Amino acid sequence: MNLDKNTRLRIIEHASKQVGPSVFWSTVIVITSFLPVFLLTGQEGKLFGPLAWTKTFILIVDAIVAITLTPVLISFFLKGKFKDENANPVNRGMERIYGPVLKWCLKWRKTTIGLNIIALLVAIPMLFSLGTEFMPPLDEGSVLFMPVTLPDVSNAEAKRILQVQDKIIRSVPEVDQVLGKAGRASTATDNSPISMIETIIMLKPRSEWREGITKQDIIQELDAKLQIPGVVNGWTQPIINRINMLATGIRTDVGVKVYGQNLDSIYAVSEKVKTALETVPGVNDLYVEPITGGKYLEIDINREALGRYGLTVDDVNMMVESALGGATIGNTIEGRERFAINVRLAQDYRNSVERIKRIPIQTAAGSVPLSSVADINFTSGPPMINSENAQLRGAVLFNVRDRDLGGTVEEAMEKINAEVTGIPEGYYLEWSGQWENQVRASQTLQFIIPLVLVIIFLILYFSFKSMKEALLNLVTIPFALVGGVFIVYFYGVNLSVAVAVGFIALFGLAIETAMVMVVYLNEAIKQLVDTKGNSSETITKQDIRDYVFMGAAKRLRPKIMTVSVSLFGLIPVLWATGVGTDVMLPIVLPMIGGVFTSSIHILLVTPVVFEMTKEYELKKHGKLDVYDVKH
């Protein structure tokens, strides 16, 4: 079929006016449905903020291009001989499949709606049975081994343990490099005691691993080999460990902070909490943060003896400081660098209490041993004192493995509430770590998701100028949720902020396809009214069914294309590998499953509901409500 230029431009203009506003408003819905992601704070806000900005700007440009540039480009490129829509073999094939299925659905309307409702009812318990976590664990490609020894461990023993552990770790075939550290750097930002060891384990590329082995298998193998008496193992990853420590002060996945006024009482309560948590499935690397048991050399000066020898407290303190700690006697200059010169007694003269007692102190009558003017012995004390909110704090730390974080913590809470009794007045517990982030994110999402639905409904209402049409589009969302829940459930993914962001993005995509369907159904009804008039005397139920079928089936290609573009863009993520896919997959899964089921609902159920609505209008009012598809 050949068309002259004026006819061709009029057809393009008519089609653009018909579809353009719906495409524009559906794009606006996708944009606004994603805007509440900006309300996320903390780690989740920093992670998904760039995604929200990027998607928002892209879709804003897309909405403008859809109603301005696209019609112009069509007028340039859509020339020559035009073929009928049925000339496309793919389109004919789809119509041959879709037509009979749609006719069956229109004939058995209650069965069609019932099957959809059953699928929705099945998805609800599946949704509530899913595990929960703050964020899907990101595989950083390396492992951080953080064992904790007894607080009174010596430097030599800590060094020996570190060397033994590194040799054992290096014996595992998948391990490439090992770097261990005991104690802390010479900086106030690192408060690690000598009893806390940090070992970064770099793994070889996955192609060099033993067949069938996973990262969790490697960690379990290492943990079994590193069972050293007096050492509590801890396994995490370098980046997330630093984030947890900076954000919450907890270096494991979860921690129970114990607040109080006395360190001994805090430690006693912490031990009770640890005992209660030992039997909770999923709890690993459980230990109490040491707040007692440290060893200190105490030099108690005898003031009466000082008087007999004519000494002062400063004389004794300066001698102890110089002999044990070292005194600065000058500086050495090496180019632009300056180094202090410290002098103290050699190791052989200060490596035991008996030798320290014999340190000489000069008096007017001669030298006397340090033991003559002071009592010297080892005493117990806190290895490190932590405080928060103007109170002393202890902590029970653990990681969660082989189970979702939310379910583990909820069971742990019930266990502690039932078994940990007799907590002194003024002492209390607080859950921290990833759980603290999860609670904050959950509270934000409980506000965000209803806000998304309200925004979508308002845009639909102002787009169609009809509450009925807005609800007809909005009902697509629960059925989009069905596919999202099914695929998340069978993939074994826990509910997290990433999954929630995927569902939020899904809502806009589902509405986008629904709006295209409703536009074509309304166009078919308008053609019916133009042909037979708008009266119950001239329009029959069969007429409504015929025109609804025509509106749904004869414009199948644009609806399938809308769905296909989304699916073809998302499905490749299922096979993606490398760092970052752990977070991408939970976002994409709800969108893939939801787009699939929402498309089935839009193609089969929406025409059924639309037909039933029009039959009701005809029966009650004697005419049909006709909406201007141009808006």
Offer a concise description of the structure:
By secondary structure, the chain is an alpha+beta fold.
Mean of pLDDT: 82
| Strand content range | 5-15%
Report the count of strand segments. Answer: 15
Identify low-pLDDT runs.
Answer: none
Report the end-to-end length measured between terminal Cα atoms: 30 Å
**For the CA atoms, what is the radius of gyration?**
36 Å
Structural class: alpha+beta
**Major beta-sheet overview:** 5 strands, antiparallel
User: What percent of the residues sit in helical stretches (DSSP H or I)?
Assistant: 55-70%
**What's the overall geometry?**
elongated
The number of helical runs is 20
Protein traits:
631 residues; 15 strands; elongated
Question: What does this protein structure show overall?
Answer:
The chain is an alpha+beta fold and 631 residues long. The chain has 20 helices and 15 strands. Strands 5, 6, 13, 14 and 15 form a five-stranded antiparallel β-sheet that branches. The protein has a four-stranded antiparallel β-sheet with strand order 2-3-1-4. Strands 7-12 form a two-stranded antiparallel ribbon. Strand 10 and strand 11 form a beta hairpin. Helix 14 runs parallel beside helix 17 and helix 17 packs parallel to helix 20. The longest helix has 41 residues. The radius of gyration is 36 Å and the shape is elongated. The model has no long low-confidence stretch (mean pLDDT 82).
Layout of secondary structure:
Elements: H1 5-34, H2 42-67, H3 69-77, H4 89-107, H5 109-129, E1 142-145, H6 155-170, E2 175-182, E3 197-203, H7 215-225, E4 235-236, H8 238-248, E5 254-260, H9 263-277, E6 283-288, E7 294-301, H10 303-309, H11 313-325, E8 327-334, E9 337-343, H12 353-357, E10 360-363, E11 366-369, E12 374-381, E13 386-388, E14 391-400, H13 405-419, E15 428-433, H14 434-464, H15 467-474, H16 476-491, H17 497-532, H18 541-553, H19 556-570, H20 581-621
